[in-house]
Design goal:
alpha/beta; TIM Barrel; 2 domains; eight-stranded parallel β-barrel; 14 strands; binds D-xylulose; binds cobalt (II) ion
């Protein structure tokens, strides 16, 4: 066993006045808010991939992180698991997430890849039973290997479709075996670069059929967790099919899956789609498909998916405000699909990135909870729509254009514009953040 996080203590809550780097100042997992612990409200999850599998490359340079477990043997995969669970012990968060490719190297054949996944699943299971975190979600990496360069389920080559089906099958088995509470599908390369080589209609139908099979298989094996789709508008492909929540909802409706599949929403993906994160959450909640979040931000200037740890409390508070309005998490949680900056080489950087992120989220969550409990914002929204409580107004929604027109003229209505009060409402938010 290597001592990668040597001399780093378990992180404990010390309160807002602490100046220790190795302490939570706002996240007290045991603090009770509205009858539930903060750990149960926030349901933090650590992503295996960026923390333990990502080498630190960018388009101009390769590996910067020099991790002793990098390599493609099962021994190294087990060393990686040992280190990952050591970090989980230090952070004490309740959940973690993986792709198959993060936790074990691929084999030479599909069958060997599957059996290696089974072997590492047992290894992870032992560590989870020995007090490690639970599995928030599992997923399949159907985008890194070059076989997936033209997509997985949407690939023009039926053999890639078959390979993807087989991979998702064993990843769902592993998720079930480890008691995973969700299974995620991010459409890695399910999209296209140019219509000159793409039959868009066919590819969309392949994706729909694939998802139907995933939902059927979950039922067959008794997986009662939630299936989640993670939308993203572009990157890696120019046009990703799962653009945003509204697009995915149309897709789910088309294939009769709107009651089977929910959303895993990522802050950075919302930004790439030209939305705010809270818009995506509110939209999913209003459609009844909100599931879980990846709470990693993008740089607002860069225009690509920088996957940074969250550090903007007011922004985080507005996201949690929408989540709380929707009733909070059920199977979902707050996953940090975040990577260090490639210059942050030290083991301690990895720990403290998470410590800061947990604190920012806890602060934002508490602000959101108070904002909702005080009701100042909801009261103003209710007042704005109060006109719709009148019987005549309500009746319009089951009426016809001609009846409404007749009444409007008969009463010679004269709508009076009223202030939307945005700045006043922003001032209310600023009382909490
Ligand atoms: C990619 C991304 C993925 C998914 C899981 O942008 O967010 O890491 O969260 O495949
Ligand atoms: Co993500």
């Amino acid at each position: 066993m290597i001592d990668f996080f040597k001399d780093i203590p378990e992180i404990a809550y010390e309160g807002p006045d602490s100046i220790s780097e190795f302490a939570f100042r706002h996240y007290d997992p045991d603090e009770i808010l509205d009858g539930k612990s903060m750990a149960d409200h926030l349901r933090f999850g650590v992503a295996y991939w960026h923390s333990f599998a990502w080498p630190g490359g960018d388009p101009f340079g390769g590996q910067t992180f020099d991790r002793p477990w990098f390599g493609d043997t099962m021994e190294l995969a087990k060393m990686k698991a040992d280190v990952a669970f050591e970090m989980f012990r230090i952070l004490g968060q309740p959940y973690y997430c993986w792709h198959d490719a993060d936790v074990r190297p691929e084999g030479d054949t599909l069958a060997e890849s599957r059996s290696r996944m089974e072997e590492i699943t047992d290894y992870l299971g032992e560590k989870m039973e020995a007090g490690g975190p639970k599995l928030l979600w599992g997923t399949a990496n159907l985008f890194t290997n070059r076989r997936f360069m033209s997509g997985a389920a949407t690939n023009p080559d039926p053999e890639v479709f078959a390979w993807s089906a087989a991979t998702v099958k064993y990843c769902m088995n592993a998720t079930l075996k480890l008691g995973g509470e969700n299974y995620v599908l991010w459409g890695g390369r399910e999209g296209y670069e140019t219509l000159l080589n793409t039959d868009l209609k066919r590819e969309r139908e392949q994706a729909g059929r694939f998802l139907c099979m995933v939902v059927d298989y979950a039922k067959k094996i008794g997986f009662d967790g939630q299936i989640l789709i993670e939308p993203k508008p572009q990157e890696p492909t120019k046009h990703q099919y799962d653009f945003d929540t509204a697009t995915v909802y149309g897709f789910l409706k088309d294939f009769g899956l709107e009651n089977e599949v929910k959303m895993n929403l990522e802050q950075g993906h919302a930004i790439l789609a030209g939305h705010s994160f809270e818009h995506e959450i509110a939209m999913a909640a209003s459609l009844g498909i909100f599931g879980s979040i990846d709470m990693n931000r993008n740089d607002y200037q860069s225009g690509w998916d920088t996957d940074q740890f969250p550090n903007n409390m007011p922004e985080v508070a507005l996201a949690y405000y929408e989540i709380l309005k929707a009733g909070g998490f059920t199977t979902g949680g707050t996953n940090f699909d975040s990577k260090l900056r490639r210059q942050s080489l030290d083991p301690v950087d990895l720990i403290l990135a998470h410590v800061g992120a947990f604190d920012v989220c806890a602060r934002g969550y508490k602000a959101a909870s108070k904002m909702l409990a005080d009701g100042a914002l909801t009261a103003q929204v209710n007042a704005r729509y109060a006109g719709w409580d009148a019987p005549d107004a309500k009746a319009m929604l089951t009426s016809s254009l001609e009846d409404i027109a007749a009444r409007a003229e008969a009463e010679s209505i004269q709508p009076e514009p009223r202030s939307g009060r945005q700045e006043r409402l922003e001032n209310i938010v600023n009382r909490y953040v």
